[in-house]
C-alpha cells in the first residue's frame, strides 16, 4: 500500500493487502503467482548454493585447494530462480578472486555427466558460461592461472587509514595479527571515480567488484561505467612486510576488505512542492539546479572481515565524504537491511555524541535544518534518531503525549475518529498504526486541530487503498498518479463500505485503461 502524503522519491510504502481483498469482492484479479513457483529438485540436479564457493587468495594461490571457500548468499541471479545446476555427478565450482586486484578465476569440476540427464528432459547446465553471462568480468584463462603481476597499488584517491586498535583490538590481538601477516598491518581507504578517461584496467576492476557483489547482494545491477556520478570507496588491509625493501622502498601487500558504490545525482526538480518534505533548508534548495544527493547503492564487507568493525569504519568515511560536499543535500541508502540500519544508526548517534549535539534531538524543537546541513542526514533518518533519543517532536507512528492524548508525528490527532472510519473499509487498529508509520511532521504542518489532522490522515489512508486498486488492476505508476488525481477526496469521506471504494474507483480505472482522462472530463 502506498501512503501518498509526499511525492517523488521520498514516498514510503507500507503494505496491508486490503485493496486486493476488496477488489476481489467485485471481480477476480488474474493470479500470476504460478510464474514464481520453483522447479523441484530432481536426482539429476544439484542446488547451486551447495556447488558454488567464493574464495580469495594471492595470484599464485588461485588454483590451490587449501583456500577457504565461502558459501554465496544468492545464486538465483546467475542460475535462475530455481537455483539448480542440472546434469552432473558431484559438481563443484570455485570462483576465486585475487585478494588485491580481484582478478577472478573460475574452476569447475564433476565426477561426470549424470546418466539420467537425457531421460529427465533437462539440459546440461553450462556452469562456467552462466557465470560469464550473468556475472561478467575479465576472468583469467585457466592456462594463465599463477601468472606473476607487478606489485599492486590501490586505484583512486587515498582517503584515510585506521588501525587494529580503532576497530577494538587489544594489544595482544594487534600483535597476533601482525605476526600472522608477517609485518605491520593497518587499514587504508581509497575512492575511485567513474570518468570518461579512466583506463581499461580501472574499468575491469569495477567489473570485478560487481561480479563479486552479485553473489552477496540480492537484486544487484551493475553500475553504469559511462556515468560519472558513480564512484567506489574501497578498504584494504595494508601490510608493510618485515625486512622486505626494494630500492629502499618498503614492500606493502594489500588485501581487499570491502567496498561501497556511491551514486551522486542531481535533484532535477527543486520546486517548493517537491522539496518541502525532504529538507527544512528551503532557502538553500528551492529553484536551484546544482543540488545533489548521494546514494549508497552497494555495501559489501568480504566474509573474512565481517562483524569486526570494518563496515562501521567505511560508513564513517562515507559520511566524511558527504559532509565535505557543499552541494550535497543528504545521504541515502538503497534498500538497507535491518543489520545495516542498526549499524548506521549507531554511527550517527556516535557522531552526534562526539559533537555534543545529542541534546538538540532530545528537546521539543530540534534544529532539523542545521543538523541536516552539518551531517547530511536524510530527514527520515533524523526523525528516527529523534525517536530513539525520546524526542516528542518527529516521532513516527501513533504515540501518546505526556497528557495522554494520541499523537502522530508529534501532532495531536482524534484517533478514535480515524480508527472508526478506517474500520468501515476493513482496517484493524494495528493496520492503521502500521500505515501511519509513514507520517512525518511536515505532513501535518498546516492542520488546525485534532479533528482536522484526523480528516487529513483518513483521506491519505483511503487514497492509499485507491492506489492499491490501481496497481492490482495493472495500472502503471503514471496511471496510478492519474487515478489519484481523479478521485474526489470529498466523496471518500462519505464511504460506508469497501464496496463503495470499488464502485467509486473501478469506473475511473476503466476510463484510464481506455486512454481517457477522468479528471479532465470531470472538470469539463
UniProtKB/TrEMBL annotation:
Gene3D superfamilies xrefs: 3.40.630.30, Histone acetyl transferase 1 (HAT1), N-terminal domain (3.90.360.10)
Is Protein biosynthesis included in the keywords of this UniProt record? no
Give the E.C. number(s).
2.3.1.48
EC category name: transferase
Q: Which GO terms describe its molecular function?
A: histone acetyltransferase activity
Catalytic function, reaction form: L-lysyl-[protein] + acetyl-CoA = N(6)-acetyl-L-lysyl-[protein] + CoA + H(+)
Designated name of the protein: histone acetyltransferase
Alphabetically ordered keywords of this record = Acyltransferase, Transferase
Q: Which GO terms describe its cellular component?
A: chromosome, telomeric region; nucleus
Q: What species does this protein belong to?
A: Guillardia theta (strain CCMP2712) (Cryptophyte)
**Annotated family:** Belongs to the HAT1 family.
Claim: Ion transport is one of the keywords in the record? no
What is a single Pfam family found in this protein's UniProt entry? Hat1_N
CDD domains (alphabetical): NAT_SF (cd04301)
Domain N-acetyltransferase per the UniProt entry, residue ranges: 207-359
For this entry, list what GO says about its biological process.
subtelomeric heterochromatin formation
Amino acid at each position: 500500500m502506498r501512503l501518498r502524503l509526499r511525492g517523488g522519491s521520498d514516498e514510503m510504502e507500507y503494505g496491508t493487502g486490503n485493496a486486493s481483498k476488496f477488489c476481489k469482492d467485485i471481480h477476480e484479479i488474474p493470479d500470476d503467482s504460478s510464474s514464481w513457483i520453483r522447479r523441484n529438485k530432481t536426482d539429476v540436479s544439484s542446488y547451486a548454493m551447495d556447488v558454488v564457493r567464493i574464495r580469495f587468495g594471492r595470484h599464485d594461490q588461485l588454483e590451490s585447494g587449501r583456500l577457504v571457500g565461502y558459501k554465496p548468499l544468492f545464486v538465483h541471479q546467475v542460475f535462475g530462480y530455481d537455483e539448480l545446476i542440472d546434469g552432473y555427478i558431484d559438481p563443484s565450482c570455485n570462483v576465486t578472486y585475487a585478494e588485491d586486484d580481484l582478478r577472478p578465476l573460475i574452476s569447475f569440476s564433476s565426477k561426470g555427466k549424470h546418466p539420467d540427464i537425457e531421460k529427465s528432459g533437462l539440459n546440461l547446465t553450462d556452469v562456467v558460461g552462466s557465470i560469464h553471462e550473468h556475472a561478467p568480468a575479465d576472468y583469467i584463462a585457466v592456462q594463465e592461472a599463477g601468472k606473476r603481476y607487478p606489485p599492486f597499488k590501490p586505484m583512486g584517491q587515498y582517503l584515510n587509514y585506521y588501525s587494529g586498535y580503532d576497530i577494538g583490538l587489544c594489544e595482544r590481538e594487534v600483535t597476533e595479527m601482525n605476526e600472522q601477516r608477517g609485518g605491520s598491518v593497518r587499514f587504508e581507504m581509497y575512492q575511485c571515480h567513474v570518468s570518461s578517461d579512466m583506463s581499461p584496467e580501472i574499468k575491469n576492476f569495477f567489473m570485478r567488484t560487481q561480479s563479486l557483489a552479485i553473489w552477496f547482494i540480492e537484486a544487484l545491477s551493475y553500475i553504469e561505467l559511462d556515468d560519472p556520478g558513480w564512484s567506489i570507496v574501497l578498504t584494504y588491509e595494508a601490510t608493510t612486510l618485515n625486512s622486505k625493501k626494494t630500492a629502499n622502498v618498503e614492500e606493502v601487500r594489500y588485501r581487499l576488505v570491502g567496498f561501497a558504490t556511491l551514486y551522486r545525482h542531481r535533484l532535477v526538480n527543486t520546486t517548493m512542492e517537491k522539496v518541502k518534505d525532504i529538507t527544512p533548508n528551503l532557502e538553500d534548495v528551492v529553484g536551484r539546479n546544482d543540488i545533489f544527493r548521494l546514494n549508497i547503492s552497494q555495501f559489501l564487507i568480504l566474509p573474512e572481515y565481517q562483524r569486526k568493525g570494518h563496515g562501521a569504519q567505511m560508513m564513517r568515511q562515507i559520511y566524511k565524504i558527504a559532509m565535505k560536499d557543499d552541494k550535497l543535500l543528504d545521504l541515502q541508502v538503497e534498500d538497507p537491511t535491518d543489520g545495516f540500519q542498526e549499524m548506521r544508526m549507531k554511527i550517527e548517534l556516535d557522531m552526534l555524541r562526539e559533537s555534543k549535539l545529542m541534546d538538540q534531538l532530545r528537546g521539543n524543537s530540534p534544529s532539523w535544518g542545521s543538523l541536516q546541513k552539518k551531517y547530511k542526514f536524510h530527514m527520515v533518518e533524523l526523525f528516527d534518531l529523534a525517536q530513539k533519543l525520546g524526542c516528542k517532536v518527529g516521532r513516527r507512528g501513533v504515540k501518546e503525549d505526556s497528557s495522554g492524548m494520541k499523537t502522530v508525528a508529534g501532532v495531536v490527532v482524534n484517533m478514535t475518529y480515524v480508527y472508526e472510519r478506517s474500520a468501515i473499509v476493513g482496517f484493524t487498529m494495528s493496520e492503521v498504526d502500521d500505515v501511519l508509520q509513514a507520517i512525518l511532521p511536515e505532513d501535518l504542518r498546516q492542520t488546525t486541530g485534532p479533528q482536522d489532522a484526523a480528516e487529513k490522515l483518513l483521506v491519505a489512508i483511503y487514497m492509499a487503498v485507491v492506489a492499491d486498486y490501481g496497481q492490482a488492476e495493472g495500472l502503471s505508476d503514471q496511471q496510478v498518479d492519474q487515478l489519484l488525481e481523479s478521485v474526489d477526496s470529498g466523496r471518500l469521506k462519505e464511504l460506508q463500505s469497501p464496496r463503495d471504494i470499488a464502485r467509486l474507483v473501478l469506473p475511473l480505472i476503466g476510463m484510464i485503461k481506455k486512454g481517457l482522462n477522468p479528471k479532465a472530463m470531470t472538470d469539463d
